[in-house]
């Protein structure tokens, strides 16, 4: 069984999970919790009065109708971090299919070192007249998130595994790279301007196959 190679710097043409890897300083964690969903049932009786022209009498009827209001559970801080992390990977992989280092979507998902590395990788695609292709069903790899840890209200860590089978192909159809790898990594997320973004990533281990990181 291959042994993980921790902290190794990967070639620039490989994709996001490895190319953005930088050391992180891990501080103590804190957890935010949210209350569960609540539901209220408001029984509001309504009264109507009718007048009978024949009998000259009036009668009152009461219609007991009820409405139900359901309050959904607020999204936890950890869930927001996870959603932003997964979106960042989806954005990057989408752009590798039509490489543009200046795509404004990058700065909405990446910041600092990670933004610079992502742009550098995309420039490498452009220089080689290449783009990314995804075998099988044609969908980009999706990281398997193992843990989200909130360090501060504006900093979080995401531990994940990415099985990367992306192919780097030129516009003429030449395959430049089709190596498959399983990478165990930890991403640092930073909050600012109302958005969570990936600021850096650290490679924890790598295996030259598609068997995942549970070993």
Question: Can you lay out the helices and strands and say which pair or pack?
Answer:
Layout: H1 16-19, E1 38-51, E2 58-71, H2 77-96, H3 112-127, E3 130-133, E4 144-152, E5 155-164, E6 167-170, E7 175-177, E8 181-192, E9 195-207
Antiparallel strand pairs: 1-2, 3-6, 4-5, 5-8, 6-7, 8-9
Structural commentary:
The chain is α+β, with helices and mostly antiparallel strands and 215 residues long. Helix content is 19%, strand content 39%. The strands form three sheets. The protein has a four-stranded antiparallel β-sheet. A hairpin with a 6-residue loop joins strand 1 and strand 2 (58-71). It is globular.
Summary, kept brief:
With 215 residues, the chain is α+β, with helices and mostly antiparallel strands.
Please tag this protein with its features.
four-stranded antiparallel beta sheet, 9 strands, globular
- List low-confidence stretches: 1-60
Per CATH, what is the topology of the domain at 16-23 and 76-207? Nuclear Transport Factor 2, Chain: A
In round numbers, the mean pLDDT is: 79
Q: Count all strands and give the number.
A: 9
Output the structural class.
alpha+beta
- The gross shape turns out to be globular
Strand line-up across the major sheet: 4-5-8-9
- CATH uppermost class of the domain at 16-23 and 76-207: Alpha Beta
Q: Whole-number radius of gyration?
A: 27 Å
């Amino acid at each position: 069984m291959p042994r993980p190679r921790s902290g190794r710097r990967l070639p620039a043409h490989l994709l996001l999970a490895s190319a953005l890897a930088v050391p992180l300083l891990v501080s103590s964690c804190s957890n935010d919790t949210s209350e569960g969903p609540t539901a209220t049932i408001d029984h509001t009786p309504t009264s109507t009065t009718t007048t009978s022209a024949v009998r000259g009498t009036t009668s009152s009827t009461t219609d007991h109708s009820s409405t139900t209001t359901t309050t959904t559970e607020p999204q936890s801080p950890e869930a927001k971090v996870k959603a932003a992390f997964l979106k960042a990977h989806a954005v990057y992989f989408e752009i590798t299919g039509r490489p543009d280092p200046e795509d404004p979507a990058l700065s909405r998902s990446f910041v600092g070192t990670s933004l610079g590395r992502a742009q550098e990788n995309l420039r490498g695609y452009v220089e080689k007249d290449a783009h990314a292709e995804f075998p099988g069903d044609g969908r980009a790899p999706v990281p398997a998130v193992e843990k989200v840890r909130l360090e501060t209200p504006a900093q979080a860590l995401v531990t994940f595994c990415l099985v990367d089978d992306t192919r780097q192909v030129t516009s003429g159809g030449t395959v430049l790279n089709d190596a498959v790898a399983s990478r165990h990594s930890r991403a640092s997320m930073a909050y600012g301007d109302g958005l969570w973004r990936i600021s850096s990533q650290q490679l924890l281990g790598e295996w030259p196959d598609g068997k995942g990181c549970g070993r």
